[in-house]
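Practice problem: predict the structure.
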Amino acid sequence: MPDQPKMDQVTHALVLDSVTHLTSAHRGGVAYCASHGGVYAGYYAARMGVGAVVLNDAGVGREQAGIGGLQLLEGLGVPAATIGHCTAGIGDGCDGVTRGLITYVNASARHLGIEPGMTCAAALHRLSLYGLQPSPAPTPLDEARFEIAGAGNARVGVFGIDSNALVAPADIGHIVVTGSHGGLLGNRPETAIKFDVRAAVYNDAGFGSDDAGISRLPALDARGIAGACVSCFSARIGEARSTYDDGFISALNPTAAKWGGAIGQSCATFVAAMVASAG
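Answer:
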């Protein structure tokens, strides 16, 4: 294993709070993105043509969905790894590079010397030593945004979005069920959600360091938005359909509790309470 580099030795790697902040300008780059390591995150990184990426294992969770992106990226020949959700806060790129420790790697990353237990900074430094090629284009995923039929009513719709980044102005006043983790990006309250929906559901990503996996909830509450998270062990992170169909509520904010939400509810029951509370 190489020497553990100081922070200033990681200058050739991108450090981002979310994988959705990658653009085509980052093709061939090495990045730590503080998103979960699920299939959607791996797909997005590949679509932007990364050379290598480190993500957060998000508690690993149901069917190891929190690291599912590593296999997708391995199929494209892209080195990929995750840091442990309890070693650094999900959604915070700087924290991940400062404190994160590698937990899982794919074969391509292992071939380049990336190993569990290595610091995130050391892994990025090592990956930056190689002239990595941009990822090939991945096979398109199924629709990442959809209406959940029968869940809403004439006044309030319910929409599934695999990523919180897909929330749109048309969602204002409605309910979104996401596949995203429940953590703020860079601890900034304004990143909780871009538009004032009625309610939003996330994945708790195993809670993790400093309960980062549920840190959106107070920020949503301050805006009068009901917020809740499902357990990462009940639903596959990155998949809104699994959040709704499989998820059980593990955390919620006071607005959600006031409107009939409760820990232990199925996500479908929680959503029904949010719809009913709208009158």
